[in-house]
From TrEMBL:
Superkingdom to which the source organism belongs: Bacteria
Organism of origin: Nocardioides lentus
Protein name stated in the entry: Uncharacterized protein
Amino acid sequence: MSAMAVRVWCPDWCTVTEQTHLDDLRNNDGEVIHSSADFGHVDSEDYALSAIGSPDGVLRPEDPTHAPVMCMAGNGELIHPDDMERHARALLDMVARARGEQKERQR
Ligand SMILES: [Zn+2]
């Protein structure tokens, strides 16, 4: 019986195994690295979510320009959710124009 059993809290999107998180604690200064399976597949690009935090569930931005949870492209690049949202809105706007849909601006 171990008195040092460590429970790791995960965001609901995290798909990392508990054993990997326990390895994180040893290899990453007592912090765990949460990661999702890939969300969305756009052309050859996969996106997932990534966050670093303490085992009790406190997530911290990796640096001051980051959000506590970042989007991660398939090449490992971290993208702020705000930037991802701007990109997604621009794409949707372009799709709407391509289809000849009117924007809801005259009301
Ligand atoms: Zn996790």
